[in-house]
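Hi R.,

Here's the chain you asked about this morning:
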Amino acid sequence: MSATTAEAPTKKKLSPRKRAQRIRWAQYTALILVALAIALTANWPQIQKQFFNPELVKTTLTEGVGSALKNTVIYTAGAFVIGLLLGTVLALMRLSSVAPYRWIATVWIEFFRGLPAIIVFIAFGLMSLAFEGFVIPYDPYGTVWVALGLVASAYMAETIRAGIQAVPPGQIEAARSLGMPSGVATRKIVLPQAFRVITPPLTNELILLVKDSSLVYVLGLSASGYELTKYGRQLSSDNASLTPLVVAGFCYLIITLPLSIIVRRMEARQKKER
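And here is the predicted structure, written out as tokens:
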């Protein structure tokens, strides 16, 4: 072979962009194949019977889902208010210069953050046995508000504390130099700015409370106090079908999806303002 013969052309390397495109297309293809496999092998008549039974959907929507949805909202709203108020106090105690306040707040926060919420519900459900004559007002709403609010306060306290610490110290010093008392400066300057920062995380806490309200079933409520999960479980048990629970799940989405959209918009607005 002649020495002047041109060397074989080297293989051209893919650019990072082309490589990323090929990886994405491979992932899309794999997902489509998995979806087709599930669609072809699934027992659709049985799925419809167990999860999307039209008659049970109608029964679930007409027999009491409205009352269960209302109870879920009431339970969540009351617990959120208690958690927010108590969490604010705990956050201020955690940042206090008084050591006993810091110790109390730290123990409270770590205790209720480490304890499963269902244990708190069970404890409050058995409270009347431990303390004879002890009754929380507006039962069962009051019991749920207090139990769930105590758990929520521990998480909200840490969120609020982070928001307070995000406020520039110079603003507090300026207020104090003008003769404004510490409490007034905290109330009028620190907390408004802190809550503006932590509104998205607090809304996420609200979404978690909506889902945690499903633990109310351990209190053994009457039918009038059922929330969505208890209502769906009861109908599912009576009809040997999971359709009522699926309907209850969609009702939760009716509450949580708008809140999630609000969180994303608030976060996007905060990013633009920075």
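One quick note: The chain has one domain: 55-273.

Cheers,
M.
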